[in-house]
Amino acid sequence: MIKKTAILVLLFFVLLTGQSAMASAPPSISIPDISINYGPVEKPEQFVNSIQILVLLTILTLAPSILTLLTSFTRVIVVFSLLRNALATQQTPPNQVLIGLALFLTFFIMSPVVGQIMETAVEPYLEGTITQEEAIEAGSQPIREFMLRQTREKDLALFINISQQEMPEDRMDVSLTTLIPAFVISELKTAFTIGFLLYIPFIVIDMVVSGILMSMGMFMLPPVTISLPFKLLLFILVDGWHLIVKSLVEGFV
């Protein structure tokens, strides 16, 4: 009963203070009403501009996928992930560091391609010398050339046959819907090949340490605990980050 009385008194106090505050408060500022209307347009250009804005917003939404699948990011991040697993360092380096390094390496590798796109498509379009369709066509050529250099003929032929398209006489005539998946699986194969080569020396260290521990009868001691310092020492002595980044960058040249 006492608890109920206390709660009622507290509620009554809150209501009184709220009413007094509302009475003494200055008049509130009116907030404008914002609404979206639809209806018939007076000029066809208004409808076209709305569609262009919608397409632009869609492209911005797909920007992470474009960055991941049309650039060198896929190979770089997969190699870094396999390297961390080969070292068995758990979450070191953390994901934020690996993704950040992969992004900046992607910017560095793709800078010549971006420069060509700016020179052949963006700048002429902003100056008004070419149309939007011509800018899109000119801007897609450098990225298409980049992907074709890294795509295997076998992977490209696979998606051309699946789509039941005729084999184009020129590789530049391949559609992007066919080229992008072929480029991605080619990048994954290259990344896994590099990862396999990275695993070999570390597996040798694990086998040697495991054999030594078994010969000493130390079955309860995890071999990873002993082999990890030797892996790190080997990686430091050969300047591993320098070699890996160098091989990744030079692989796209």
Would you write up a description of this structure?
By secondary structure, the protein is mainly alpha-helical. The chain has helices spanning 2-24, 44-61, 63-69, 73-87, 95-127, 132-150, 153-162, 176-215, 223-237, 240-250. The longest helix is centred in the last third of the chain and has 40 residues, at 176-215. The protein is elongated. The relative contact order is 0.09. Mean pLDDT is 77; it is low at 1-27.
Global shape: elongated
Largest sheet: none
Number of alpha- plus pi-helical segments: 10
H/E topology pattern: HHHHHHHHHH
Spans of at least 5 consecutive residues with low confidence: 1-27
Mind sketching the topology for me?
Elements: H1 2-24, H2 44-61, H3 63-69, H4 73-87, H5 95-127, H6 132-150, H7 153-162, H8 176-215, H9 223-237, H10 240-250
Helix pairs in contact: 4-5, 4-8, 5-6, 6-8, 7-8, 8-9
